[in-house]
Design a protein that fits this description.
heterodimer; A: mainly alpha; 26 helices; B: mainly alpha; Helix Hairpins; 3 helices
C-alpha cells in the first residue's frame, strides 16, 4: 500500500530537483520532472487495475493533527472515482510535460516552469487522493498557488502578473466558502474524514435548521452550498469565472493542464466526491444544476465573437464546466465525471494544438491575422479538427457520448430538468458554432497572416506533435467506454455507479427510443451549428461583419464579455478595496494612529514644559524644596505612626 | 543648674535662624555665615548633652565638627572668590545659568 504514496511524491521530487538544481541542470531539469510525472502515471495505471480488480484503499500514512477526539491525518483513499481522476491527471500531466519541452524551449525560466508544473501535479494528486477535507484543502490551495505561479510565469509582463493575482484572489473568494463549509462540517459531525462524514450525513437531515438572513436553511443544505461556492471559484462558474479568460496570459501548456484538464475540474471532482452530502439537499442540487446550465450558455455566448484563439477555448472551457455541474446537479454524477474525462482529453488537445498554431505563427494569437493554414501545418490541422469534432459532440468522437449522457439525464430529471435540457441544447449549438468558427478562421478562409510571420510558418517539432496525436487518439476513442442505450456499453457509468446515489428520474420517458431521438436531436443541433459556421467563415464572407453591424449593441456586449470585469472593477476593486484602503489611510492611519502617537509625544512635551519650571537655577530654591520635602516626610511619618 | 532643655532650645533656635538665613539671604557671604551658624548650633547641642550625660563623646565630636567647619569654610571661600570673579557678583540670585 505504501507504493501509492509515491504517486504524489514522485512529481514532488521532480519539483524539488528542477526547482533547486535548475540553475545547474538547465535544459535537463525537464527530464527529472517528466520522469517524476511518468512514474506517477505508471503507478496510477497500476492503481486503476487494482481498483478494477476490486481493491479499495483508505489508509492514513501520517498523523498530522491529533487533539483529543479530533484528528486529521495525511491519508489516501483510492476508490473508483480516485482511480479515474488519477489516470486523467497523470496522463494529461505527462503528455503536457513532454509537450512543454518543445513549447518552452529557449525560455529563460525553463527549469522554473517544469518545477512549477511538477509541483502542480503533486498538489492535484494530493487533492484527488485525500481521504479527509483538510488534506483535500491542502491540495485545493496548492493548485491555486501553482495556478498563480504559472499564470504569472512571465512575471515581467504586467498583464500576466495581474492575471495571476486576479486568479488567486477570485479563487480565494470561493475558498472562503470552502473553508466555511469545512468548519461547518466539523461543527456538525465532529470529524473531517470523508468516510465518517458521509456515513453520518443522513443523520443530520432532520436536524434543527439555521436562521440566516431571515430565512431558514438546513445544515446539510448550507454545507452543500458553501462547498459549491468553493467549487464555483475553482471551476470558474458564474459569477466567479472572470479569472479564467485572463489566465490565458500564461503559457499555453499551463492553459491546457490547469485550465482545461485538471485544476478547474477539481471543483467538479469535489462535488462528485461529496455526492452523499449534496444528494441529501434538493436545494443544493438544483442550485448546482441551474448555475451549471446558466454558465454553460453564458460563456458560450461570449465565446461566439472573441478574436483571440485562446480566449475562445477558455470560454469554451467555462461553458463545458457548466455542463459538468449541470450533470452533477441533476444527480447524474458519473455522467459529469465522464464528461470531465472526455473534456480533459479534447480540451487539453485543443489548447495544445492552439499552442502549436501560435508557435507556428511566431506568437500570433489573434484569429483575424490567421487563415489558410491547413496546407502548411497539416498535423496540427488534423488534431485540431479532431478536437473540435469531439468538443462539438459529433459522433463517434468522445464529446458526443459524454455530452449526450448529460443532456439525457437533464431531460429526465424532475421539475426543472427539461428547461435545463433546453439550455444545454442551446449551448451545444453555440459550442459547435464557435468551435468550427475557430477552425475555419484559422485553417481555411483567406490568409490574413502578416508577411514576415508567413515566411516562418512551420509545423511543430515531434516532441510537441506526438502528445497531440496521443490526445487525438484518446479524444476519438475514449467515448466508447460510456456508450448509452447499448446494453453493457456504459462501462464507465457502471464502474462508478456504486459510489453515487442513483439519480432521480421523473420517469424514464419513453425509454430507449426517446433516448435515441434526443441523441439525434443533439447531433442535429451540433451539425446545424457546424453548417452555420461553415457558411459564415469557411470562405471570405461579408456576413460576419454585416451581422455585427446589424446587432451592434449585442455584438459589443458579447465582445466586451458583458462588461462583467468592468462591473467587478467598479464594485469591488474600486468600491470595496480602493475606497476602504483610502478611508483606512486618511482616517485610520493618518488621523487616529498618527494622532495617537504624535499626541502622546506632544503631551509629554507639555508635561516637561511645566516640569522644567522646577529647575530655576536658584540654589536657594533647591534648598528650600529639600527642606519642604523633609518636613512633609516627617509629618507623614508621625501621622501614620 | 541650668536646665538641659534651655540648651536644646537655644540650639534649635540658632539652627532655625541659620536655616532661614540660608534660604532667604542674597549675599553669598551671609549664606556661608548662616551655614556656620547651623554647624555651631549643632555643636552647642552636642556639648550640652555631653555635660548632662557625663560622657566625653559629645565633646570629642564637637572638636571634629569645628575642624570640619574650618576646612569647609576655607574651601567655600575659595569657591566664592572664583565664582564671584567669574560672574562679577556676589548675589545668589545671579547664579542661575543652570536654569532649565
Amino acid at each position: 500500500m505504501l507504493k501509492y504514496t509515491l504517486i504524489p511524491l514522485l512529481p514532488f521530487a521532480g519539483f524539488l530537483i528542477a526547482g533547486l538544481f535548475g540553475k545547474f541542470l538547465k535544459e535537463k531539469s525537464a527530464w527529472f520532472a517528466i520522469a517524476g510525472v511518468i512514474g506517477a502515471f505508471i503507478l496510477s495505471v497500476g492503481a486503476f487495475f487494482d481498483v478494477v480488480g476490486g481493491a479499495r484503499l483508505n489508509e492514513n500514512f501520517y498523523s498530522w493533527i491529533s487533539i483529543g477526539d479530533f484528528s486529521a491525518n495525511v491519508g489516501f483513499q483510492i476508490d473508483q472515482l480516485t482511480a479515474v481522476m488519477l489516470l486523467v491527471v497523470t496522463t494529461l500531466s505527462s503528455l503536457i510535460h513532454i509537450y512543454s519541452v518543445g513549447y518552452m524551449r529557449g525560455d529563460k525560466g525553463y527549469a522554473r516552469f517544469f518545477s512549477y508544473l511538477a509541483l502542480f501535479t503533486f498538489f492535484m494528486l494530493v487533492l484527488v487522493l485525500a481521504n479527509n477535507f483538510l488534506l483535500m484543502f491542502v491540495g485545493w490551495e496548492g493548485v491555486g498557488l501553482c495556478s498563480y505561479l504559472l499564470i504569472g510565469f512571465w512575471y515581467e509582463k504586467k498583464s500576466a502578473s495581474d492575471a495571476g493575482l486576479k486568479a488567486f484572489v477570485v479563487n480565494r473568494v470561493g475558498d472562503f466558502g470552502f473553508v466555511l463549509a469545512v468548519l461547518l462540517i466539523f461543527l456538525t459531525f465532529g470529524t473531517l474524514d470523508f468516510s465518517e462524514v458521509f456515513a453520518l450525513a443522513p443523520t443530520s437531515v432532520g436536524a434543527a435548521p439555521y436562521q440566516l438572513f431571515g430565512g431558514e436553511i438546513s445544515v446539510i443544505t448550507l454545507i452543500a452550498l458553501l462547498l459549491f461556492l468553493g467549487a464555483m471559484g475553482k471551476s470558474a462558474q458564474l459569477p466567479l469565472y472572470v479569472w479564467l479568460p485572463d489566465a490565458m496570459e500564461g503559457p499555453t501548456p499551463v492553459s491546457a493542464l490547469i485550465h482545461a484538464a485538471t485544476m478547474v475540474t477539481a471543483g467538479v471532482f469535489m462535488v462528485a466526491r461529496c455526492a452523499p452530502i449534496f444528494s441529501l439537499s434538493e436545494t443544493a442540487m438544483n442550485t448546482v444544476a441551474i448555475v451549471g446550465a446558466l454558465t454553460a450558455v453564458f460563456a458560450a455566448t461570449i465565446g461566439l465573437v472573441q478574436n483571440d484563439i485562446k480566449r475562445v477555448i477558455a470560454y469554451s472551457t467555462i461553458s463545458q464546466l457548466g455542463y459538468m455541474f449541470l450533470a452533477l446537479g441533476v444527480g447524474a454524477f458519473s455522467a459529469g465525471i465522464f464528461h470531465l474525462t472526455t473534456h480533459a482529453f479534447f480540451k487539453g488537445l485543443l489548447f495544445l494544438a492552439s499552442g502549436s498554431v501560435i508557435h507556428a505563427l511566431s506568437g500570433e494569437q489573434d484569429m483575424r491575422k490567421m487563415g489558410a493554414l491547413k496546407p502548411k501545418i497539416k498535423i496540427t490541422w488534423a488534431v485540431f479538427f479532431i478536437g473540435t469534432l469531439a468538443l462539438s459532440g459529433i459522433p463517434p468522437f468522445a464529446g458526443f457520448f459524454s455530452k449526450d449522457e448529460i443532456l439525457w439525464s437533464a431531460y429526465n430529471a424532475s421539475s426543472i430538468g427539461p428547461a435545463l435540457w433546453f439550455l444545454g441544447l442551446v449551448g451545444a449549438f453555440m459550442t459547435a458554432f464557435y468551435s468550427f468558427r475557430l477552425i475555419y478562421l484559422v485553417f481555411y478562409n483567406t490568409s490574413h497572416v502578416d508577411h514576415e510571420v508567413a515566411h516562418h510558418v512551420h509545423e511543430s517539432p515531434r516532441v510537441m506533435t506526438v502528445p497531440l496525436m496521443v490526445l487525438a487518439f484518446f479524444a476519438t476513442t475514449i467515448g466508447f467506454i460510456g456508450m448509452p442505450v447499448i446494453h453493457g456499453g456504459n462501462l464507465f457509468g457502471e464502474f462508478l455507479a456504486p459510489l453515487f446515489p442513483p439519480a432521480e428520474h421523473a420517469s424514464e420517458t419513453g425509454g430507449h427510443s426517446a433516448e435515441l431521438l434526443a441523441m439525434l436531436l443533439s447531433v442535429g443541433i451540433a451539425a446545424a451549428g457546424w453548417r452555420l459556421a461553415m457558411g459564415m467563415y469557411k470562405t471570405e464572407s461579408a456576413w460576419p461583419d454585416k451581422l455585427a453591424e446589424k446587432f451592434k449593441v449585442a455584438y459589443a456586449l458579447l465582445l466586451n464579455k458583458y462588461y462583467v470585469d468592468e462591473v467587478y472593477n467598479y464594485l469591488f476593486v474600486d468600491g470595496l478595496v480602493h475606497k476602504t484602503a483610502k478611508f483606512l489611510y486618511t482616517v485610520g492611519d493618518v488621523r487616529i494612529i498618527d494622532g495617537l502617537i504624535n499626541g502622546l509625544a506632544s503631551a509629554i512635551g507639555g508635561m516637561s514644559r511645566r516640569g522644567r519650571k522646577l529647575q530655576s537655577g536658584f540654589v536657594q530654591q533647591y534648598a528650600f524644596t529639600m527642606g519642604l520635602g523633609l518636613v512633609v516626610l516627617l509629618g507623614l511619618y508621625y501621622a501614620l505612626k | 543648674m541650668i536646665p538641659q532643655s534651655w540648651y536644646v532650645v537655644l540650639s534649635a533656635l540658632l539652627f532655625t535662624i541659620g536655616v532661614v538665613g540660608v534660604l532667604s539671604r542674597r549675599n553669598i557671604f551671609i549664606i556661608l555665615m548662616s551655614i556656620e551658624l547651623m554647624l555651631n548650633a549643632a555643636n552647642i547641642n552636642l556639648a550640652a548633652f555631653s555635660h548632662y550625660l557625663q560622657s566625653l563623646t559629645g565633646q570629642v565630636f564637637v572638636i571634629f565638627v569645628i575642624t570640619v567647619a574650618a576646612a569647609e569654610a576655607a574651601v567655600a571661600l575659595a569657591i566664592i572668590i572664583l565664582i564671584s570673579r567669574n560672574r562679577g557678583t556676589v548675589y545668589a540670585d545671579d547664579f542661575n545659568i543652570m536654569k532649565g
